[in-house]
Structure formats: structure tokens, C-alpha cells
Amino acid sequence: MRAVFVGVGAVGARAARQSQFLGSLDDLIVVDADPARAAAVAESLGEPARVATADEAEDGDVVILAYPGSHAEAASAALANGAHVVSVSDDLGCVQELLAMDAAAQERGRNVVVGAGFSPGLSCVLAALAARSFERVEEVHVAKVGAAGPACEQQQLEAAGKDGLDWRDGAWESRRGGTGRELVWFPDPLRGVDCYCAALAEPALLLGAFPDASRITARAAGGRKAMVLARLPRLRRENPEGTLGALRVEVRGSQGTALDDRVLGAVDRPAVAAGAVAAMAARWALDGRLARPGASGLASLVEPGPFLASLAARGVKVAVFEGGQHGAEAAAAGRH
Amino acid sequence: MGIATLVAGVLRLRGATVEEPKGGGWRELTGPELR
Prior knowledge:
The complex is a heterodimer of chains A (336) and B (35). Chain A is α/β, with parallel strands linked by helices. Chain A has helices at 10-19, 35-45, 72-80, 92-99, 102-108, 122-131, 150-160, 202-209, 223-230, 270-286, 298-301, 304-313, 328-332, and strands at 2-6, 27-31, 49-51, 62-65, 84-87, 111-113, 136-145, 164-168, 171-175, 182-185, 192-196, 215-221, 245-255, 258-268, 294-296, 319-322. Chain A contains 13 helices and 16 strands. In chain A, the strands form 2 sheets. In chain A, strands 7, 8, 9, 10, 11, 12, 13, 14 and 16 form a 9-stranded mixed sheet that branches. Chain A has a 7-stranded parallel sheet with strand order 3-2-1-4-5-6-15, sandwiched between helices. In chain A, strand 4 (62-65), helix 3 (72-80) and strand 5 form a beta-alpha-beta unit. In chain A, helix 6 runs parallel beside helix 8 (202-209). Chain A is globular. Helix content of chain B is 34%, strand content 11%. The relative contact order of chain B is 0.10. At the A-B interface, strand 11, helix 12 and strand 16 of A face strand 1 of B.
């Protein structure tokens, strides 16, 4: 088995490290735009890791893409070489390009796992787990806070300034970035954080798993305040490992005639969780454990329980919110 | 007046009026719930 990690920043390096604990690899290839960083990561990983040139980047059984910018070209080339592809991109445009490769991936009997990070990624698996409580899923609402590293933070600032897409009653509805402030209650220690509309990838990914849902939305912390602050001089250096992050995923659905909701969440360093999710997705692709070939998000591809149990064994824990006012009551109060 | 306006503005920016949901809490998912 040969795994190729293209981009070994905060997420890619951790994905490569995690992959060594998830099963044997004959070859672990590291590719990065910064040769010194690639060499340092390969040395840190030890055998069988080695640095390769960009020419070798598509030549693996699975290719994990974890660098800023579009992954479409690299994914297409890797697919043409018969590799599975795992992308950690959270850029909406990139995610849409990768999802459009579904027919090509199915034709080749390979997987393009789209959005295999913290958010999207772990968020999609949480939605799939919460959906198991219902016969029919009516609504999915995702909120996130935190960044995996400087590149992720930059991407989030760009997303905050762009219009988001919500799925409402069978159609995409554009929502202006930085609007729609909503107080979201994340697990401790983050707790209450204001979240806003932004160009987030979850609705595009989750629609494939929940085509009958009437509403799928995503919100992120930051909004216009973060966009303004980002333009001011920084008094401290950016943390290369990112910040503490959290997810909150609320699924509303029906069981028989009863309507109910289920709220799941997670708190972790996004780079740590994203690395574990990407490595796990790559392993499941290699082992033939993904539900079907093609290009889609994790909610359509994995059995959420076993996937999260394996993540928990790697230290990525998830939580459920019980009691309190959320879901139906909050919806009645007009929150979403 | 100026200082009060400034403080009120900062508190608004920080989303200072946060109330914890009553009677609820987060619990880690383990074991059978993840099968």
C-alpha cells in the first residue's frame, strides 16, 4: 500500500502521522511546496516515509490532498492513475469541483472523499450519527469555531466575506457572508459563540446524504468583526498549530409521527481532529470500507458509529447535548 | 458619554449578553452509542 500526502502543514503532517497507526503502509510519500518542511516531516515520521517530487504525487493507492487552493487538478490526475483521493479542503468552490467528479470516480471504481477534515469532515460524520435516531431527516444545522492553522484561518476569513448557500425547501438560497448572527452553544470550554453565514461547504456535502431534508445550513464564528480585525496589525504571531475549535451539529427529524432533534458536538484542536479524520478516511478507502465508489462527503460514505469509535481510540472525542432549550423550542423562537 | 458609548460598543462586539441554556449539558459519547 502506498499513501501520498500532498501538503504537510498543520493538517497534512498529522494525517501522515496518524496513518502510521491505522495499518501497515509499504510506502508513505510526502510532497510539499516547501522542500525543507517536507524533509523535516519525512524525517520525523521515520520509515517508510520519504520525500518525493510533485511528479510522484499522483502515483499512490491513496492520495491525501491537504494544501491551500483548489484540489481539482490533482484529484483528477490521481484518479486517472487509479488512486483513491482524500481531500481536506473546506473551500466551497473546491468542494463543488470535487463533487462534480462523482461520475468519473464511479467509472473507475475509486473514491474521492470530499471534505475529510474537521469541518467539513467530522461535522458530516456527526450529522450521519445524529440522523440514525430518525426515520426521516427534516433539517441539519452545522456550526463551527476555530482554525487548523494559518492557511485554514486565511481560508475562513475569505469564506466569511463570501455569500453562503443554505438549502431551503428544495432550493439553494444565497445568504450574505457575515450576516445572520446566531448564538451557538458549543461544548466546554468554548460555550456560547456568535456564528454567521459564510461560504461553507457542509450544505453542499450533506445534501447528498440527506436529499429529502428541507433545510441544511452552516454557520461559522468570526463574521465581519473577524474580517475587520484581520486587516489590523497583529500584535502576536499566528499560531502554526491553529486554535482550539468546536463543532455543533443539530439534526431534526421524525420517528413515526413524533418530531424531535439531536445535538452532537466536539471540541478539539481542528488540526488534530482533521488529521485523524483524513487518515481514517484514507485507511477506509484502502480497506474497501467506504459505502460506494464516487465523489461524496463522509456522511454518505462511512458507518458513523464505527468511524467515530475508531477516532475516539485516536483521542478525538464527540459529545451529545442533552436537555435544555434547543431544536424545536428554539426553532419556534425563530432562531434559524 | 463618549466612554460609555465606547464600552457599550465593545460589549456588543464581544456578544456579552450570553446566557447558558437552562437544564442542559454536554456528555461524551462512548461505547454502545458509537456502534
